[in-house]
Amino acid sequence: MPRRSVALLIETSNSYSRGVLDGITEYVRHHERWSIFLPEQERGGRPPQWLGRWSGDGIIARIETDEIAASLRRTKLPVVDVSAARHLPDIPWVETDDEAIAELGVQHLLDRGFRNLAYCGDPGFNWSNWRRDKFRLLVESAGVAANVYDSLSRNDPKYSWNREKRGLAKWLKDLPRPIGIFACYDIQAQKLLEVCRELDIAVPEQIAVLGVDNDQLLCELSDPPLSSIICNTQRTGFEAAALLDRMMNGEQIDSAPVLVAPQGIQTRQSTDILAIDDPDVATALRFIREHALEGINVADVVRHVPLSRRVLESRFKKILGRSPHEELTRLKLERIKELLTETDLSLSEIARRTGFEHDEYMCVFFRKLEGMPPGQFRQPNR
């Protein structure tokens, strides 16, 4: 059987797209080899001239404009979309799970004790609007104060950085403090950090900022370094390639989205703070986060604060919505899941790193909370 020829209309200028391309590469490496055509492509640019005369077998594309969509439709080839813009709503598409991203972002800021939250979005992108809408629902259900700001879209013909900066500055000045801001993606978060610096707003003490995409270069170059949600872009590319393979084999695939959940959060200085007015609860929470993986229990926590266990648990739950024991459990579970999905460490080594004397104890702990043993969880989430 001759090699199939597949074109990738995906830009290489940002870490998200490069992650998608890595996932496609991984799929091809473990399945039938494809002949890959990866031309230089600008996001949202005009359709490439070669597309009309290309005689390949399938295409994976970020379809960002009606013009690109029309050109792809004319090829009559199998196409999988990896954009949220949905210019071809009747074809298969793979995208980030934006509601799950919003859940992770809101929880990250709530975990740091913020009772004022804000969202800064770009209304020109569906994924930003979906994250914003879920943010609103989550914040309302949490009973905390929320602010939403749709910045001037980069797609707006009147866009200029100076104009956007003025709008962001006015918004930031009027926000209550301390506040945690969930930005729609890292570029927007970096802009917020720049405006905070110009306004002499302390980050994260007065305003904490969280981005999305975990663009390593962008996050580390930000001042201060930017905390960011890690999208599973490789999984997105892998799933897109798997769909295209099935289509090229003649299988009919419906247009229901394949949504890929985020992997977690890379915490850096921009959110590395506890916004808690109660100093005893703040001390307890800091101790838990610093020592949760060392096998400590609630009694160890109580010894580090001048409170009885009953008073600590009451005040802790009032502020954070959960008990010290529940916080210990949550942190241990998060770390186990992270090590299962991001490393090849043995179960015994993971148990050692998360404060369990034996891996059997960790497996019982994990099964009770997740409904499955660690090994079963690890395989599909790698």
TrEMBL record:
Keyword Nucleotide-binding among record annotations: no
Xref: SMART domains: HTH_ARAC (SM00342)
Pfam families reported for this sequence: HTH_18 (PF12833), PBP1_XylR (PF22177), Peripla_BP_3 (PF13377)
InterPro entries the UniProt entry points to: Homeodomain-like_sf, HTH_AraC, LacI/GalR-like_sensor, Peripla_BP_I, XylR_PBP1
Residues in HTH araC/xylS-type domain copies: 282-380
GO MF terms, alphabetically ordered: DNA-binding transcription factor activity; transcription cis-regulatory region binding
Keyword set, alphabetical order: DNA-binding, Transcription, Transcription regulation
Descriptive protein name: Xylose operon regulatory protein
Organism of origin: Fuerstiella marisgermanici
Organism placement in taxonomy: Bacteria, Pseudomonadati, Planctomycetota, Planctomycetia, Planctomycetales
